[in-house]
Amino acid sequence: MLRIERLAKRYKTGDHALKSVSFEVAGGQVVGLIGPSGAGKSTLIRCVNRLVEPTSGSVVLNDRNLTSAGGGELRRSRRRIGMIFQEYALVERLTVMENVLSGRLGYVPFWRSFLRRFPQADVDKAFSLLDRVGLGDHADKRADALSGGQRQRVGIARALEQDPELLLVDEPTASLDPKTSRQIMRLILEICRERGLPAIINIHDVALARMFVDRIIGLRAGEVVFDAEPGLLDDAALTRIYGEEDWKAGTNTSDDEPEQVAAFESARERMAGMV
User: Fold this and answer.
1) Residue 156 is part of which domain span?
2) pLDDT at position 175, please?
3) Domains held by the chain: number
4) Are residues 267 and 188 in the same domain?
């Protein structure tokens, strides 16, 4: 479980990026973090793994206080937090397998990583993960030969190679087409169900968030202004998060929309049964 309590971030300029943010994420739960640009979404994710130092508050992962950890303890904690990035963060000239094995860099001696000589157990696990994300026959391809969706799948496999206790996901679909975006979101949700992993996904696509995540947290000006299941994200809630707008303008009202919604709800129920 991840527990965030009164987390705040104030920069030297005096600007508050986060203001007393508190919430918990249970094992296997996928939380979608939404809000306008500058709301503090990316800052929140980076405060969790201490890429950005919070000004106050605490982040506790499975009874370990990450905000008070230092030195070796912080390094050990970070290696159990998997990050999935918008721009994939792959080494383009390396193979898919080498990129996935980079998820073990926090666990192996420097000489092994330098020589790319990982334990056989790590290699076997990487092959298994590539099968799981649908890239079992791409292990020897260079990363720069892959499509955007395939690169994101490599990023997911690399994060899982870390044996994470938490997934932090930053805009995983921003560079992908609509179909691939849905496939990636579905894959992340299934994996979190299978492994009991809590996850926070920073996402701009509200429609995708409504379709796939278990819970939506809306940030505005560094504060939580919405925290509920996707079905409760109505026009009033969207206005609290983003400001005044005609939220019904441009909405698809075709006859098949109810069937699509029912299909998504059915898929959600099936995946919930996997917990």
Assistant:
1) 94-163
2) 83
3) 2
4) yes
Query: Could you tell me which of 159, 171, 178, 43 has the C-alpha nearest to residue 90?
Result: 159
Q: Do 63 and 173 fall into the same domain? A: yes
- Where are the alpha helices (H) located in the chain, listed in sequence order? 41-48, 71-78, 96-101, 110-115, 120-132, 148-161, 178-195, 206-212, 235-242, 257-272
pLDDT of 113 reads 53
Q: How far apart are CA 225 and CA 222, in angstroms?
A: 9
Phi and psi of 157, rounded to 5°? -60, -40
Please identify every stretch of the chain with a pLDDT value under 50, giving residue numbers as ranges.
111, 114, 253-261, 274-275
d(CA 1, CA 24): 7
Q: Give the Cα separation of 197 and 167 in Å (integer).
A: 7
R_g over Cα of the chain: 19
CA-based diameter of the chain, in Å?
61
Tens digit of pLDDT for each residue in 246-268? 777 765 544 444 444 455 555 55
Say whether both 259 and 192 belong to one domain. yes
Residue 37 · residue 14 · CB < 8 Å: no
| Strand order across the 215-220 sheet | 81-84, 166-170, 199-202, 30-34, 215-220, 223-228
Per-residue model confidence (pLDDT) at position 254: 44
Model confidence pLDDT, tens digit, residues 19-55: 999 999 999 999 999 999 889 999 999 999 898 999 9
Question: Which is nearest to 59 in space by CA: 48, 70, 51?
Answer: 48
Measured CA to CA, the distance from residue 88 to residue 265 in angstroms comes to 29
> Does the predicted TM-score (pTM) go above 0.90?
no
Q: Are residues 175 and 157 in the same domain?
A: no
